[in-house]
Every structure is written in C-alpha cells, then in structure tokens.
Amino acid sequence: MQMNRSINAERNLTMLMDFYELTMANGYLLKGKRETKVVFDMFYRQNPDQGGFVIAAGLKQFLEYIENMHFDEEDIRYLENKKIFDPQFIEYCRNFKFTGDIYAVEEGTIVYPYTPIVTVVAPILEAQLIETMLLLTINHQSLIATKANRIVRAAKGRTIMEFGARRAQGYDAAIYGARAAFIGGVNATATVSADQLFNVPAVGTMAHSWIQVFDSEYEAFKAYAEIYPNDCTLLIDTYSILKSGLPNAIRVAKEILEVKGYRLKGVRIDSGDLAYFSKKIREVLDKNEMQDCKIVVSNSIDEFLIQSLLEQGACIDSFGIGERLITSKSEPVFGGVYKLAAIEDNGEFIPRIKVSENTEKITNPGYKKLYRVYDQNNIGKIDVIALADEIVDYSTKLVDQNKPWKRYSIEKGWRIEPLHKQVVKNGKLSIKLPDDITIRQRTLDNLKTVWNEEKRFCNPHTHYVNLSEKMYDLKMKMLNQFSQEDLHE
User: What's the CATH number where 224 sits?
Assistant: First the structure.
C-alpha cells in the first residue's frame, strides 16, 4: 500500500478563484459585513447524459483545499499591485483563515437534482472566496465518477480500466479524473500518479512502438514474455490481427510461457471491428486450449458501444476506456451551482431566494437539511429537502415541487436518514477523511439502494425529490411576495 498523500498540500491553490469573488469580498468588508454569517448551497439542476442520478465525488480534495487555504506573500503582492483593493482587505487576506462550518453528503453517495450536496455556513467573505474551488472540484469529479459508473454498469461485471490521461484536459484532470473513475467503479487506471496518490491500481501492457522496434512481431512478443511472464498481455493488432498478431501470441504462449509454467494472461486489440475480431480471437484461443486467456479491447469506447458489442455477442473480458470517460465526452459539463440561501440577522437565519423567469433557476430558500427515505427493502424512495430547524418524521407532510397538488406522507416502517454530515466545524476538519477504496465501496453500496428503473440509460425513472410542507410554504410565500411587488412596478 503506497502512502496516500495530497497534491493540494504541496501547493497553494488559494488564488484559484474568480476575480469577482475578490471584488465582492472587498466590498462586503468596506460595507461593514465582515461578520455577517450566510448560508450557501451547492447543488445541480440536471443529471448528465439524461441519466437517473449522479455520484457525488471530489469532497476530499475540497476539504484539503479548505485546510490549506491561505494567501502567501506573493498573493498579497498581486492584490496590492491591482490597485483596487482597500488596505483593510489586503490585511484581511494576509491573516485569512476559514472559520465556518461545512455540511456535505459523503463522497460516493448517490445524489439528485436540486438537493444540496454541500452547504456552507460561514462569514460572507469566507463563503464567497471558496466558491470557485468548491464548484470545480465537486463538478469535475462528480461528472467523471458518474460517467465511469455508467460504463461499469454497461459492462455487466467485465473489467474496466481507465486509459484517458493523454486525452484529459490537463494533468489535474487526468489525475483526479482517474480517482473519480475509481470511485465510480472502474477497476484500474493507466495513470501512475493516481496509483501513487490514491491507490488506484495501475496497469499497462505495451505500445505499438514496442513491436515496431524489434525485427519481427514474434521477437517483440517473445522479449516481452521473457521480461513479464507473470503478467503478459500482448497487443496483437500492429500488423494483422488474425494472420500475424494472434498466431504469434499463441506461439509465444506455447514456446516461451507454458514450457516454464506460465500462461498468457491476455491479448489486446484497439482497432477494427471489435465484435467480429473478438469472436474470431476467442474461437482460435479456445481451439488452442487457451480458454483462460482474456481478450482486452480499447478504442473510443463508451457505455453505448459496450452495450452494442455485448448485444452482438462480442467475446470481450476487459475494456480500456480513454477519452470518452476522462472527458465525459457525451456531456462534458456538470452544471453545479453555488447559491445564497440565508443570511443571519440577530442570531436568526433569514431566508433568501433567487427568482427567475426560468422556473428551473428559482432556488429553494433558507437554511436546509437533506434526508433520504428508504422502504422496507432498503430502496431509496424519496429525498426530502427540509428547513434546518424541522424534525422530519412520519408526521412530516411532503410536497412535490413540480406537481404541488401532490402531497405525500412517509409510510410507517420506512427509514429516514439524514444525508448531510458536518465535515468542517469552526474552520477545522470534523471528520476523519476515508481512503478512496472506502469511498468506492460506498458507491457500490449506494447503488444497491437505487431503483433499477433509475439506472436505465434511456428515459430513467425520475427520483422523487420533495420539499417538506413547511419548506414549500416558505418558498411560495416568498415567490408570492415578489409577484405582488411586480404588480406595483
């Protein structure tokens, strides 16, 4: 087991923020709002790929950022040189330390649109300055973890390896993308840093260049088998899969490996008609008593191609997935947002709401908590967004915010679980961060609680996300108030 260390602890990412966060924080300070405490919610509005859910990921790196957040002297000089920030704000940054509270769903938890994934309760300057890092961290890793899980589910138990580093949008995207893919369920990665940092098993075979360097394909296979007899997978499509690559791989298996007590682990192709060639390869391998030799494929694969290949009877044991996973090519943007929900006044949190002509952009006001209700079979039936001071129990009335004429009750015998955990208290980490293997297992456990209908790739069932009646009434009261104000304009 390698040491699990943090990239964020070795570099200062504090200035990775939008410039408006600095200008607003400077303005808040000058207007006497330094001590004003607020509540912000981070949530998203739509599942990527028109899927049924999202896997929350990235919290660990965000919390590492919070722990390490500080403005160093180089940052201070930059702010001074901009000539727009007040000396009081410069001094505030020089002594900056996050002091607020953070609540979040645990990494690996299944989440749904409009549910608060992270809630920040902090002085307004602090809450504002962490916005960009919170969004980019949770957005990116949740997107990749979710895409990875779609691919894993499509493969129906076959091994999935993440091969995407060279196609990722930058080195952080490669490394953290591999971590997120592992949380989403992939078995291994080709990215060595992800193994070193996060214990995601690193794997690799050979490149076409290895074969081209030697005088013949057979010599290249022979050399590789002699060096790695315990873990020998041969790339057989450099020249001709069936006329050259496969016969040479079998020859090396028989003449080099088996005589010494080893077996050829696998053959790999990353071009051609994968369904056709995999079936032909399997037929030849089996005729040569090599039923244990695995067939590995790669080449711009995603969950839909995997489904198609398996429907065609492809004889594939393992998939190497690159660009379509690491970039979530089919939908490469996760639209998480960070919105003000309440502001403290005389020790009480006063709700705030964002109103929009686009109904999907109207926010749920107030300081909130998130719950999930499970039936007797441990299936998550309903998510409940309630006000923080509410007690959610069997007497709580629920409202479907999209169909408000529908009211629900929580059935007796169903289990009500709070999903928010306090992860930061008074600026200090309040939990022990789990390792990534534990987080990955949480994903697998969470998936067992999801309706099969929500797991469909096409037209999945929409999970019930309801507001408590008290939460809904507050929202309607605030919207009606704004509506009346419009009438007088």
Answer: 3.20.20.70
